[in-house]
Amino acid sequence: MGLPTLEFSDSFVDSPDFRERLKCHEIELDRTNTFIKELITDGHQLICALKNLSAAVQKFSQSLQEFQFECIGDAETDDEVNIAQSFKEFSQLLNTMEEERRRLIQNADDVLITPLERFRKEQIGAAKEGKKKFDKEAEKYYSSLEKHLNLSSRKKESALQEADAQIDKERQLFYDASLEYVFKIQEVQEKKKFEFVEPLLAFLQGLFTFYHEGYELAHEFEPYKQQLQFNLQNTRNNFLSTKQEVEKLMNRVRSADQDQKPPGQWTMEGYLYVQEKPAVCIRSSLSVSLFSQNGVMSNPTEKFRLKSCIRRKTDSIDKRFCFDIEVVERHGIITLQALSESNRRLWLEAMDGKEPVSPEANFSYLNEAGFNFVRKCIQLVELRGLSTMGLYRVGGINSKVQKLMTTVFSPKAASDMDLDSDTWDNKTITSGLKNYLRCLSEPLMTYKLHSDFLLAVKSDDQNYRVCAVHALVHKLPDKNKEMLEILIKHLLNVSTHSENNMMTVSNLGVIFGPTLMRSQEETVAAMMNIKFQNIVVEILIENFEKASESKDNTQHTPVRNNAFILYPYCTNGHAPPPPPPPQKIKPTNISFKTVYEHIRKSFLILIHRDAKAIYSCEAEHSHELSFPKGAHFSNVYPSVEPGWLQATFEGKTGLVPENYVVFF
């Protein structure tokens, strides 16, 4: 039930019922007063807690800002760069939130505490003062009334009239105090509905504004969060892939013990035994120094230049761990004996040793059988559909994969042998394809270009990465390049079904990075570069389609070999004004020899010079620059793309045609 209404007329009667109803109002007023006092105390504690929280968050934010990630290796992937930068992004986000919280804290006193204290002191305090006055006048009136009623009627009329006038005056004072008190106490009860609630509403509005700011920041943060999650997933995938390779290397080191190739200035160093001759110490893959059995060098100046190295088959000699070498300085074959099988393997690797011709299955070379096998695998996989979850990621049963390889690459098997779809399941086929590429005697991307590919993708300039990788692709041997095109075209098809098979370009990079590229040396440092090998594959897949789309377009089109861009071309679509426009390279008139000579000559030009455009140019690709005639370029230097220069114009860096500019 609500509070009873107090009528002004009841103030004159001052009945027990009136006093009871007035008491209800007084109790409610005391309860409200107590509540407001507690609320003010809680408000102070809340503000203090917010201040402490804000200080803690700011300290946390500062720690994030000051921390610097350090990654293993001489370069970082884009994913690692974004992850390293994430702490600063988090710090900035928290600082933005804290700015809004600080405004909330600064306004809290004015918005919440001060109005509540003012209401309690001015309104409830005034009602309490009215009660004191009411009680005082009531006591005075009823005391005087009692005395007045006890006056004797025998007193003079003038004295009685004076007493009557005095009691009327005191009664009026009591009535006035009663009326004012009734008015004030009901006024406070009504005012608390808004003057008490409004400060709370304003404070909550500030609190909601703070939370809304958080919501808006979260909405703006969503794209970055999604990108960061993508970076984290890529990095996790790279970590798992690298971890497997590093663990394998660690186990090989553990099992190889002293036979493990030691680090040092030589490709390989150690002792070998030559049949019926002194022991031999090889100190490099190209020179041999002879030692006696007791470790004394028989001829310190005698060195040999290596011509060939072939492993000896077990059934061709009584002793184990042997291999044959031919040197320039001597005629005939020298048979050497290593200390163990693993030690022989290391020597063979160091001296580019070959396996003896064997009638057994051999799938370590890029030959007709290998090309046929890859094409048949791809054909069968694409025929069955590319929506299989984890395609190429989920491996097949090893025994089945080995059976497939033995069957296809058996000396008795036809080079164009078909794969029976009823015999071989998808996992076996995909694992067989990866196994063939992984077991090549030299990786598809070659040892020679391995470091060049890594260096290209470690650049901060994404456009340069694409151009450099494509230029390096064209340095591959023809067979390697042909096989790479077949494979990348297929992987692009696989990636277009990533919504179903979950094999995004990034995931395919993780699978095929270590398959297509590997370092000649098995070290932890080399394993840490696997993530960059993955990026090379990603670039090839992502840019394959663009190259293929305009492969047949010869007007204003880059010179291409297979499907990979060799010369991105920049033109405005119209012939430049007189003098006659520069002659453009025609696809039919260029050879690789010309290309490489052009690259060599380009790098003889002085780098980082200024240049001026003699023709206008409209860019056709994101990595090219658009510019008017007379444009001034700074920081001009040769690009990896023949016929193109890297330059900066109006703050943007990109490619410009070399024959469209003149140097100052």
UniProtKB/TrEMBL annotation:
It comes from Cyprinus carpio. Residues 87-114 form a coiled coil. SUPFAM superfamilies: BAR/IMD domain-like, GTPase activation domain, GAP, PH domain-like, SH3-domain. CDD domains: BAR-PH_GRAF_family. InterPro entries: AH/BAR_dom_sf, BAR_dom, GRAF_fam, PH-like_dom_sf, PH_domain, PH_GRAF, Rho_GTPase_activation_prot, RhoGAP_dom. The keyword Chloroplast does not apply. Residues 606-664 form the SH3 domain. Keywords: Coiled coil, GTPase activation, SH3 domain. Residues 361-548 form the Rho-GAP domain. One of its GO terms (molecular function) is GTPase activator activity. GO terms for biological process: signal transduction. GO terms for cellular component: cytoplasm. This is Rho GTPase activating protein 42b.
